[in-house]
Automatic annotation (TrEMBL):
InterPro entries: PRELI/MSF1_dom, Slowmo/Ups
Name the record gives this protein: PRELI domain containing 3
Domain PRELI/MSF1, residue spans: 9-184
Transmembrane portions of the chain: none
GO CC field: mitochondrial intermembrane space
Annotated Pfam families: PRELI
Length: 205
C-alpha cells in the first residue's frame, strides 16, 4: 500500500494506492464485483440502486449506481462539525470491456461534500502471467476541507478505506462462493428435471 499525505491551504489530502492479486479468473471476479453489495463483511452499505445501464457501440457495459452507506462518526465529532446525519450517498460509474478484459469502477460521495470528498478508482485486469488470476488496482484520494478536526477526519477516512479494501476482498470471495453454490444448485435441479421424463418414458415401455 502506498500512502501520501499533503496539505494545501485548508484542504488535507490523503492518497491511497493498493495493488493485489485475486485467485480467480477475470470473468468470475467481474461478475462478483458487480454483485458485491450487500454483503455481511461490509454492512455499512445498506442500499444499491441502479440509475442507468447501457451498452455502447464498442460493446462495453456502462453502469451508474447510487450506494447508500452509513458513515459511523463518533457523536463528539458530529457535535463539533455540526452535522447529525450519518447516511452518505455515493455515486458510482463502472465500465466493463469484455474485449480488452478490463473492469473499471469510479466512485465519489455526493453528500458531505462541503467537508470531505472521497474519489475512488478500481481497475480489474487479468493477471499478466496467470489467466486464472486477476489483478486489482485500487486508488483513493481523500480531501478534507477546512473543518475542525481535519487531520482526524482525514486519518479516519484513510483508515476506513484501508480496512474496507480488505473487507472488499473478503466480500468478493463470499460472493464467488455464493454464485458457485447457485450454479451447482441449478445444475442439480436441471439434472433432476431431465431424469424425471426419462424415467417416465422407461416405465411406460
Amino acid at each position: 500500500m502506498i500512502l501520501i499525505i499533503s496539505r494545501s491551504g485548508k484542504v488535507w489530502r490523503n492518497v491511497i494506492s493498493v495493488c493485489v492479486s485475486l485467485s480467480h479468473p477475470w470473468e468470475t471476479v467481474t461478475k462478483a464485483a458487480m454483485q458485491k453489495y450487500p454483503n455481511p463483511m461490509n454492512p455499512s452499505v445498506f442500499g444499491v440502486d441502479v440509475l442507468d445501464r447501457n451498452v455502447d457501440r464498442q460493446g462495453r457495459l456502462h453502469s451508474k449506481r447510487l450506494l447508500s452507506t452509513e458513515w459511523g462518526l463518533p457523536s463528539i465529532v458530529r457535535s463539533i462539525i455540526g452535522n447529525v446525519r450519518t447516511c452518505m450517498y455515493i455515486q458510482e460509474h463502472s465500465v466493463v470491456d469484455p474485449k480488452e478484459k478490463t473492469f473499471e469502477l469510479q466512485s465519489t460521495n455526493i453528500t458531505f461534500t462541503n467537508m470531505v470528498s472521497v474519489d475512488e478508482r478500481l481497475v480489474y485486469r487479468p493477471h499478466p502471467e496467470d489467466p486464472e488470476k486477476t489483478m486489482l488496482t485500487q486508488e483513493a484520494i481523500i480531501s478534507v476541507k477546512g473543518v475542525s478536526l481535519s487531520s482526524y477526519l482525514e486519518g479516519l477516512m484513510a483508515s476506513t478505506i484501508s480496512s474496507n479494501a480488505g473487507k472488499g476482498r473478503e466480500a468478493m470471495e463470499w460472493v464467488i462462493r455464493r454464485l458457485n453454490t447457485e450454479i451447482e444448485e441449478l445444475a442439480i435441479t436441471a439434472r433432476g428435471t431431465l431424469r424425471t421424463p426419462m424415467a417416465a418414458a422407461v416405465t411406460e415401455k
